[in-house]
Design goal:
The protein has 12 helices and 12 strands. The protein is an alpha/beta fold and 291 residues long. The strands form 3 sheets. The chain has a 6-stranded parallel sheet. A 4-stranded antiparallel sheet has the order 3-5-1-12, covered by helices on one side. Helix 11 links the parallel strand 10 and strand 11. It is elongated. The two termini are 29 Å apart.
């Protein structure tokens, strides 16, 4: 399967991925794409092979991005998958093997690992959530709390591990939050203003109380974000409006208490920590032959 086919299957735009990779290489290799150390030690004719190896157990995401990075730097590098994105691996697992000029392998190393380790860290964290919620109807959603410029990769990593993307940005879903309600005067006024201006767009409403939830539904809302509500309060909201809307619990919910929130009957739990606080998964590039 080609890189284009893999990225298309992943739901990721290659143009966006290539731009991210270009910026990362420019940052690491400079405008001349130079690695003085490798250039001094290895002639262009020296080739070799290296393994991408998981140092820790976890869920892998970003191999297709790693392949695209090597391909952007050199058309002489061959990338062979040993596992696919979404695989759950043990420490020591070989994820892929790359072969080509040693100089090119080492020049790409840090950029590839920065992206692959970050994405796999997000995927590993997300898999814990999706596994914890697997016996309930509740799914885990990501948020817009992503690293600027890397949102497409962050959200792909969430998807590949069993989580769901809430929205890509401000542009594709209207979300009425506290500041909108305050400025408009009420939940109903804010909802009517958005609906009048954009009859074509989905509208989500953040609510803080049972009363606001009822008001939002009466205004026409079909998706509510229940912010910083306890599981008991969520049960009240579910009982009052749950059959008519989708409900999301949000606000500092951790894995330790996620099951209690899922048991309230909400459809989703969102966690910004999936993309802003996931530790990386340690992955290395190990040269195994050189000639």
């Amino acid at each position: 399967m080609s890189i284009d086919d893999r990225l298309q299957a992943a739901g990721v735009d290659r143009t966006v991925v290539e731009a991210i990779i270009t910026a990362a290489f420019d940052e690491d290799l400079g405008p001349d794409r130079s690695d003085p150390t490798s250039e001094a030690i290895f002639p262009l004719s020296q080739t070799g092979s290296a393994d991408l190896v998981a140092r820790d157990p976890g869920v892998i995401a970003g191999l297709v991005v790693a392949e695209a990075a090597f391909a952007q730097l050199s058309d002489r590098v061959e990338f062979v998958y040993a596992v696919d994105d979404g695989a759950e691996v043990a420490a020591g697992t070989v994820l892929a093997t790359v072969s080509g000029p040693v100089r090119d392998l080492l020049m790409a190393e840090r950029t590839v690992l920065n992206l692959l380790c970050r994405m796999s860290g997000v995927a590993t964290h997300t898999r814990r959530w999706s596994r914890l919620l697997s016996d309930s109807k509740t799914t885990v959603l990501d948020t817009r709390k992503t690293t600027p410029g890397l949102r497409v990769l962050d959200k792909y990593a969430v998807r590949v591990a069993g989580g769901e993307n809430k929205r890509m940005g401000l542009y594709d879903v209207a979300m009425i939050k506290d500041n909108h309600k305050f400025a408009a005067g009420s939940v109903t006024a804010a909802f009517r203003a958005v609906r009048a201006a954009r009859p074509d767009i989905a509208i989500q409403v953040e609510v803080d109380t049972l009363e606001e939830a009822v008001e939002a539904v009466e205004a026409g809302a079909e998706f509510l974000l229940c912010d910083n509500m306890s599981p008991d309060r969520l049960r009240e909201v579910v009982a009052a409006v749950g059959d008519s809307v989708k409900l999301e619990a949000t606000g500092n919910i951790t894995l330790d208490v996620a099951a209690d929130y899922a048991a309230s009957g909400v459809d989703h739990i969102s966690s910004g920590a999936l993309t802003h606080s996931s530790p990386i998964l340690d992955i290395a590039l190990d040269i195994r032959s050189s000639r």
